[in-house]
């Protein structure tokens, strides 16, 4: 619960600092730099959480099938969620 509150406060702070939260997201030159900053700023944000958050808010992310191979472990539930979101028309992946 504390992490959720702290993450919400971080979003509000970034929104104020950059005029909008979207402007903060767009202030990075590439996905890797944004993901790195996200993991530092927000609690409980690992590689999977960053990718999925950005995917769900319709920000460009690396193509899942290639990107997921760069992180350790098997992620069948993540793959299932991405496939369902794509079927619903939510994908904005970078090629």
Write the layout of secondary structure elements.
Elements: H1 2-18, H2 21-25, H3 31-41, H4 47-56, H5 64-67, H6 76-87
Features:
6 helices; 95 residues; 62% helix; mainly alpha
Description of the structure:
It is built from six helices and no strands. It is an all-alpha fold. The protein starts with a helix and ends in an 8-residue tail after the last helix.
User: What share of the residues does DSSP label as strand, in percent?
Assistant: under 5%
Helix content bin: 55-70%
Which word captures the global form?
A: globular
Distance between the termini: 36 Å
Order of helices and strands: HHHHHH
**Unreliable runs, pLDDT <50, ≥5 residues?**
none
| Helix/strand structural class | mainly alpha
Mean pLDDT: 89
Largest sheet report: none
Q: Tell me the number of strands.
A: 0
Total helical elements? 6
Instruction: Report the C-alpha radius of gyration, rounded.
Output: 14 Å
Brief write-up:
The chain is mainly alpha-helical and 95 residues long.
